[in-house]
Design brief:
mainly alpha; homodimer; DNA-binding
DNA sequence: TGAATTTGACAACGGCTCGTGTCAATCTTT
DNA sequence: AAAGATTGACACGAGCCGTTGTCAAATTCA
């Protein structure tokens, strides 16, 4: 409750201003959170554990974050922003769309293998914590999907199919991480690539059919009765 | 500590034996768990909440389960066994593989929509709770993938691609559940079907190529340096 | 050097949940 | 009806964690 922000211009400490120190502590906490959450899992981690890993005390935790969930969000945002930036760079080169997508996927799996704790945070720990977290997660996956479609020169693909493809890639990554990167990276990337090329092919077929909606499905194939 | 199991043959109560009563209570707890975990989420649920929903007291919880996680496993097994059985039935008819897979998928999404709480338990709550739970989850997804491959008459498909396809379907389901089944079922099933038909197509191509390994990837596309 | 501020270590409070224990009420057998 | 088994309601202790508060040590400014 004692923050005369404008009255006292804040003292310098260890060569940096109050603002700088705050930001540095915040960063330390985020890095520590990625490490701790990635190793123990978010739900098994305590505020104290994160603070210890950051070399700070609880006081500075609450200086920057209202609660653990806020720190998780911030950590997740940090990881995904860096990752998406790296992926965009990987996809920038010229060449066939297929090759550019492959480059992005390889970069993606390399990043996961290079930072397994971040990978776990990105893929596992975020899921199912709260409604807001789920939305954040879905949003970042959406960005991932759009990046892929850009590379494939698809303008308005089927959102459902995009969701399915991205989900498949994510799940593949999850599997790979869970098995400690047992399979060769190339094999994983190749499987992911086959998935990613699906929307392009589907677009061709739909183009021939003419319509956007998947024609009417043969409903008589649907087992009609008791769905309980 | 007072269970003279063989000395006292156990008294009958309300027309059923001690064994029957135990099993019934266990079932009640599992049903209540599906409901409670599916609504509040596993991590936000307490032992007491499950017992209240089951109309039993904590004592009977610990009679049948060592802890919450054991109940979660049991509930999950119950849900998945019923679901997989229903899916096998849906795929039994004769017809083109594609149509049979479609029937299975439609049945799958119908089941999810029909039991949203089970769906949530099956898709969300199970993930990331513990290492054992993750293994149980992966195993049931594996069964799902094998079922699909059976229907497509694929004998030894690429495990990686199978993982990716099943993951895509699961993620599609997840998305659908999270958005309260907003999209029409047919659209979701159709997107899933496109994914599921991918292994058959890939098999053809690989057959033409001849080799199992995906040829050598153009490694120069991989951005070599700093992965940090 | 001395006063003021920032920092770090840690205590303390409150809330929540697990798991166990107690005891009266209910039901079954004799 | 009486005795014994079973059940249900609930209390209790222990432990853990989030969050706030206290206080002395370290650092800076005048």
């Amino acid at each position: 409750m004692n923050e005369p922000a404008s009255l006292e211009p804040a003292r310098r400490y260890r060569g940096s201003s109050a603002e700088e120190r705050r930001r540095r502590r915040r960063e330390q906490l985020i890095l520590a959170a990625i490490q701790v959450y990635g190793e123990r899992g978010y739900r098994n981690s305590t505020v104290k554990a994160v603070c210890d890993a950051a070399g700070l005390t609880e006081r500075y935790f609450y200086e920057s974050f209202a609660n653990s969930e806020a720190l998780l969000v911030a950590s997740y945002r940090g990881v995904t922003q860096r990752l998406l930036k790296a992926l965009r760079e990987a996809g920038e080169g010229s060449g066939r769309p297929e090759d550019r997508v492959r480059a992005v996927l390889v970069r993606y799996f390399e990043a996961l293998r290079g930072e397994p704790r971040s990978a776990r945070l990105f893929l596992v720990e975020i899921a199912g914590v709260s409604a807001e977290l789920d939305r954040v997660f879905a949003a970042s996956l959406g960005e991932f999907g759009l990046l892929l479609e850009e590379l494939l020169d698809i303008e308005a693909g089927d959102p459902m199919l995009r969701t399915a493809v991205v989900g498949g890639v994510i799940h593949l990554a999850l599997h790979w991480v869970a098995r400690d990167f047992a399979e060769p990276l190339d094999a994983v990337a190749e499987a992911a690539l086959q998935l990613c090329l699906l929307p392009a092919g589907a677009l061709d077929k739909e183009g021939l059919r003419g319509g956007r909606s998947p024609a009417k499905l043969p409903e008589q194939l649907v087992p009609g009765g008791g769905s309980s």
